[in-house]
Specification:
Elements: H1 16-20, H2 46-64
Length: 78
């Protein structure tokens, strides 16, 4: 888990709702806006952008280190 990242649940209008309706879990994530989306006071908490960047950076680093058919992991010596 990434420090200072909060797991939460929000009802929203993402496409994940279509997957969820069929029992398929999904992830919707982004900067924290104190649940102000689509309101007259819509905003983003600036410090949450830094946390979001850190989480995304760690996720992408982990993805880069995953083996794939196009980029197999080097063989280790026994």
């Amino acid at each position: 888990m990434v420090p200072d990242v909060r797991l939460d649940w929000e009802d929203g209008a993402s496409d994940a709702r279509f997957l969820s309706a069929h029992g398929i879990p999904g992830v919707v994530w982004g900067a924290d806006g104190d649940q102000s989306q689509h309101s007259d006071d819509e905003h983003v908490a600036v410090e949450s952008i830094t946390r979001l960047y850190g989480a995304l950076d760690q996720f992408l680093d982990a993805c880069r280190n995953m083996p794939s058919p196009e980029r197999p992991q080097p063989k280790t010596r026994s």
